[in-house]
Amino acid sequence: MGEQDQKLDWEKKLTVTPFPQGQFTEECKQNVRERIEMQKENKRNWTPWIGGGLVAAVLAFAVVTNLDNLLTSPDNRSATDIPPSAQPNKVPSMITEIKDDEKKVTRYMETPATTDPSQAVAAVKRLEEARKAQDWQTIEQLLYRTDAPLDFPEGYINRMFGQQATHDPDTVEYGEPTVIKGFATEYKRINRSQEPNNAEKVEEMRMKFKEAVAVPVSYDNNADQMVYYAVQTATGEWKIAYDRVADSFVTHKQ
Amino acid sequence: MKFGALSHSEKRNALEELMDTYGQDIWNYAFTLTRNKEMANDISQDAFVKAFEKLNEFRGESSIKTWLLKITRNLAIDSRRSAFFRRVTPVEFVTSTDSHPSAEKEAMAHLSSELIWNKVMELPLKFREVLLLYAFHQFSVREISELMEIPEGTVKSRLRSARIKVSDALKEAT
Fold first, then answer.
1. How many CA atoms lie within 13 A of A233 on its CB side?
2. Residue A170 main-chain phi, psi, to 5 deg
3. Which of B81, B12, B9, B79 is nearest to B41 (CA)?
4. Percentage of chain A surpassing pLDDT 90?
5. Who's near A113: CB < 8 A, 6+ residues apart?
6. Could you tell me which of A105, A113, A137, A104 has the C-alpha nearest to residue A240?
7. pLDDT digit string (tens) for A60-99?
8. What is the mean pLDDT of residues B64-71?
9. Is B52 part of the contact surface with chain A (CB cutoff 8 Å)?
10. Which of A18, A29, A173, B33 has the most CB atoms around it within 10 Å of its CB?
């Protein structure tokens, strides 16, 4: 292990001083116990219902299918046949549609919606300018108030305010038009080429994003690989998003 | 250590032992990854619930501590991606709540530890995590490499960078 074997003086101090924050308390343990018992109870309560539930579901499906056949004619289509986008006041929520077990695919940050793409870019630029000017009032407004134009992710905030001195060679330059172009170009290239490895990702991107217009706002040093974007979604809103899928479409260094 | 096919009550006993032995380590690691107390509470609890569910699958290929830390790590990564990990304070700076009256020398030594912890916790995660696994949790480079699923060379280079960054920061601060 070479030089790593020799612990530095301050490192030795870390080993002899207690971790300076919080504890895994008795309350934490109790929460774990209760959750496990609750799971056991749920399992016990649901097991007898599973068999019956399956039968009921099959019967219900048969009934609904028949009813639907009766009700659906070229001139009398059921509401479920209308695509969500065509239903007034019913915008599909991508956030709520993403279930917990799909975490590893893509996650979106909820942000105040805006249909004006320029607001996403403008917010990034305003924050950058405020940081340079040390204008803390504006910074606070942009980052933390409920009326903040965008919900800047923690990784981005860290990079701007906590990790400026640790410039990472992989860091993308956020908010730069060249990056927008780079992203769009790369997306289109992969989209056109239909590379087998990326077909699934492209399809996913196409479903989620209306346009391949995204402004990388930060390389997340902490996560080491994810990039945050201001992305226009299929609903026309702009959100701060990050995901590994999108990451694969970006050339980190422009 | 292997658990094989345990009954519910046997698993409960094993869980109690794991929480007693590794609870604090898991919490510390969760905090290292998130720098947020509430999240460290949630993640450490989630880790033990998950460990309980998967206990029968533990094959003893790594130490039980490494296995628990790996669960914690995956949960923390998921949390970081979740929509709820948003408006958090960028860094919960380390502030000691201890207020033992002590001699000036002890106070200075204490302050110094606090300063070191501050500087370590200010590191970006990829450096902070490696450094604390090595210096605080006493993991070897190989163990860190297995836990984080990165090459040993990467562990070493991150460790080197982390040391340089903290050393420089300490020099600046003193």
1. 23
2. -85, -5
3. B79
4. 2
5. A235, A237, A238, A239
6. A113
7. 544 444 434 333 333 333 333 333 333 322 222 222 223 3
8. 91
9. yes
10. B33
Band the pLDDT of B49: cuts 50, 70, 90.
very high
Residue B174's contacts (CB-CB under 8 Å, 6 or more residues apart) are B115
How does residue B104 score in pLDDT terms, banded at 50, 70 and 90?
A: very low
Q: b or e along B133-160 (b: 16 or more beta carbons within 10 Å of the residue's beta carbon)?
A: bbbbbebebebbbbbbeeeeeebbebbe
Q: Which of A173-177, A199-203, B39-43, B114-118 has the lowest mean pLDDT?
A: A173-177
* Closest residue by Cα to residue B145 from B29, B76, B62, B54: B62
The tokens of A9 are what? 């003086």
**Facing A32 at nearest CB: one of B45, B123, B165:** B45
Which residues from chain A sit within 8 angstroms of residue B132, using beta carbons?
Answer: 14
Predicted model pTM: 0.48
More confident residue, A152 or A71: A152
Quick check: B19 contacting A, CB < 8 Å? yes
Q: Residue A208 has which token pair?
A: 């989620």
- For the record, the structure tokens of A222 come out as 């902490």
- CA dist B128 and A166 (Å) reads 12
Q: Which residue has the tokens 């009921």?
A: A56
Collapse the DSSP code of B93 into the 3-class scheme (helix H, G, I; strand E, B; otherwise coil) and give the result: coil
- Inter-chain touch B27–A8, beta carbons under 8 Å: no
CB-CB contact of B21 with B51 (8 Å) = no
